[in-house]
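Section 3.1: Structural characterization of target chains.
Under the original work plan, the team committed to producing a structural model for every single-chain target entering the pipeline before any wet-lab resources were allocated. The record below documents one such target. The sequence was received from the expression subgroup and is listed exactly as submitted; it comprises 238 residues.
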Amino acid sequence: MGSDIFGAAMLDYLNKTYKEDIVTLSSISEDDTIPVPYLFRDYTEMPIIEQKALQLSKGKVLDIGCGAGSHSLYLQEKNIDITALDSSKGAIETCKKRGVTKTVNAKILEYKDVTFDTLLLLMNGIGIVGNLNKLGDYLQHLKSLLNADGQLLLDSSDIIYMFDEDEDGGYWIPPGKEYYGEVDYVMQYKQQKSDSFPWLYLDYNTLQRAAILNGFNCELIVEGEHYDYLAKLTLAKQ
């Protein structure tokens, strides 16, 4: 993703030099912003989907794409064995400064040889897959990180509502995309700009089909207020 946009913004916030938010430029909507303080929210400020995922977390937990470590800190305070993982050096530095005791600076596909009871992919963490055709590879890798009775908790959104409906009830999807939930993003913070990178939003039915194909059971746990949902994947019995 080029420069460490999130890491730079989070460290500025911690160091009290935060003055502006992260700007997101996407292939499907107007420019938007991610308020940096939101990355530091506590449990009471989290959406119901995230709260529910934290309530369901058990055993040894891996928080994938942990960001500023808000989910990890909450679980750590509940005496849960939590490891915070992020590919952003700045994010991991932020987590350490905030008091997260176990951290890993790595890309999830390069992290192996250790297993967990709960894997968390929150704030549309499954977006890291980028393109739908890579979903199977990611699910297989995540499966290798799970204990036999473990669970993968992830949230995502069905973004079909962002596309124009035509007269016969179909939707106009931009050319060049295999699936409407594939979005290209560029992030900007101060003078830094990231390279363009793909990000995946999954409707529940597509996730469920991929989960079953890759040896998981898939259960819809809760739906949010805006086409979003929390799903739980568990290993299908052989």
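The chain has six helices and twelve strands.
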